[in-house]
Amino acid sequence: MAHPVEGIMGVSMEKIREMVDVNTIIGEPITTPEATIIPVSKVSFGFASGGSDLPVQAAEKFAGGAGAGVTVKPQAFIVISKSGDVKLLELGAKSSPIEGIVDSIPDIIEKIKAFIPAKEEKESGKKDEKKDSEE
Description:
Helix content is about 45%, strand content about 35%. It has two domains: about 1-90, no CATH class; about 95-135. It is elongated, with a radius of gyration of 30 Å. The protein is α+β, with helices and mostly antiparallel strands. The chain has helices spanning about 5-20, 20-25, 95-135; strands at about 30, 35-55, 60-80, 85-90. The longest helix is centred in the C-terminal third of the chain and has 38 residues, at about 95-135.
């Protein structure tokens, strides 16, 4: 036979599960003519439960209780443009300078990629000019 505190814990956890699901963390997409925006949230929750058997002359009695708290905090938005570009727009400040540097790496890589073909085209043009002048 299950102890009554198990029933209290089971009901409490089930209620929390109803409140917090994947749709709370990754929200419903919002579609605009230019882009699709998906909200992302941080969900934190705490839970406590307890009880005690109280011996009485006539019969054993049980007393117990449970409590829970849930916090939902918006963290970011995923923006998908019609051209297929995906960006993460974070809310709030970075917790450390290193985090800011790590987050900027994808932008730096894109700038380098854009620079390399331009440099190759210039060098290719110079080679073609040399060949033309040699002939």
